[in-house]
Write a structure and sequence with these properties.
Blueprint (H helix, E strand, L loop, with lengths): L1 H4 L6 H7 L11 H20 L19 H23 L9 H21 L9 H29 L1
């Protein structure tokens, strides 16, 4: 999604190749290649591009309420990786470019949320926590996810 919202012209075939670290796997037939292209370009890329419509907001991977600190840490890892992947795709290895101030603010919030996810990931799972502590952390994680979706959609709508 970050690549689609990026200010840079992005080649979907390049992005497809990047999924395999630049070494696209050998396929045994033209039909297999067509299937990969169809799934990636027609289904995934176009489905994600449809989120540029405000009536079709982008959503992050849904996570059930965690029943343990270890599960909460796992959810924080997923969320952090999603946000990191969005930003990597968005910036396209570029360092200097001008952003709309609102988009820049949204990116700053996303960076803070990634740091907050890292804080949860780095908690010691052996540290005793009460059910109330876990409930509070889970509620904070839910709020962080809602904030992330808001900021992601703000960037998508501003930049696409």
């Amino acid at each position: 999604m970050g690549a689609i919202a990026s200010l840079y012209v992005v080649d979907p075939i390049f992005e497809l190749n990047a999924l395999w670290d630049g070494e696209f796997p050998e396929l045994d037939s033209e039909a297999a290649l067509s299937e990969v292209q169809d799934v990636f370009l027609n289904r995934l890329w176009n489905t994600l591009a449809a989120h540029a419509n405000p009536d079709n907001p982008f959503t992050l991977t849904p996570c059930a309420g965690p029943d343990s600190l270890v599960n909460l840490m796992s959810q924080a890892r997923i969320r952090g990786e999603e946000l990191d992947a969005f930003m990597n795709g968005f910036f396209q290895d570029q360092e200097d470019f001008e952003l709309d101030p609102d988009a820049a603010e949204s990116l700053s919030v996303l960076e803070e949320l990634v740091e907050m996810c890292a804080g949860i990931i780095n908690m010691d799972p052996a540290t005793p926590s009460s059910p109330l502590d876990l409930e509070t952390l889970a509620e904070n994680m839910k709020k962080m996810s809602e904030m992330a979706e808001f900021e992601l959609n703000n960037i998508i709508l501003i930049c696409t």
